[in-house]
Amino acid sequence: MQAIDERGRRGDRTDMSQIGAASYDFAMAPLEAAGLRNMRRRLLTGLTGRVLEVGIGTGASLPHYPPGVEIVAVDPDEAKLARAGQRHGDARAHLVTAKGEDLPFEDESFDAAVVALVLCTANQPEEVVRQIRRVLKPGGLLRAMEHVRLHNRPLAAIQHWLTPAWKAMAGGCHLDRDSVGVLESGGFIIDEVRDHMGGLFVEIYARR
């Protein structure tokens, strides 16, 4: 009887995780329509070879990759990975359950890497950046889409003040991280940063 109860609890957890993944898509839909979808398209334009996406989530980026790209995508959330496979087909990408802080890949094994709304949430963003740089080939490209600390100091102070409550509501997401600075400190060369929505969101074009 105990084993049956445990299976039931695991089933309940799986159901709740699947609901959470679907709810995430629902919550993100207005932002995707407001500009994130177009940002993803631009970020992925021109990528070739073997590409790693860290923090694929439910797979919002997958439809926008150029044809012929070999996509390897990681996320620690199995329910989100499952939804990504259901929505876009497992054949579009090789999906791997893993954290960005501990990438299970060989050194210098990817031509490019992509992160979208990951550095704002990662427990150790500096380690995520170190791992990405490790698995990129010399000169490999990094494309990132993040929401960041605003340049306007009073607004940045409000972001900082709101972050503790926002983290509790949004799965550990920080409103006030300097993701460009984290990438620079991690050894990446920043080629271009494009501001969107008043600087709240940025596209980052960088290379190892």
Structural class: alpha/beta
User: How many individual β-strands?
Assistant: 7
Instruction: Report the radius of gyration as a whole number of Å.
Output: 17 Å
Please name the CATH architecture: 3-Layer(aba) Sandwich
Q: What is the 3D shape?
A: globular
* Oligomeric state, counting identical vs distinct chains: single chain
* N-end to C-end Cα span: 55 Å
Strands side by side in the biggest sheet: 3-2-1-4-5-7-6
In the CATH scheme, the class would be Alpha Beta
Ranges where pLDDT stays below 50 over 5 or more residues in a row are 1-17
Within CATH, the superfamily carries the name Vaccinia Virus protein VP39
Q: What's the helical proportion of residues?
A: 40-55%
What count of structural domains? 1
Record keyword descriptors for this entry.
Rossmann fold; disordered N terminus; alpha/beta; globular; 7-stranded mixed sheet; 5 helices; 208 residues
Quick summary of this structure?
This protein is an alpha/beta fold and 208 residues long.
Q: Would you write up a description of this structure?
A:
The chain has 208 residues and is of the alpha/beta class. It has a single domain (2-146, 184-207), classed as Rossmann fold (3-Layer(aba) Sandwich), CATH 3.40.50. 43% of the residues lie in helices and 24% in strands. The protein is built from 5 helices and 7 strands; from the N terminus they run H-E-E-H-E-E-H-E-H-H-E-E. It has helices at 2-44, 78-88, 125-135, 153-169, 179-185; strands at residues 50-54, 70-75, 94-97, 110-116, 136-147, 189-196, 201-207. Strand 6 and strand 7 form a beta hairpin. Residues 1-17 have low confidence and may be disordered.
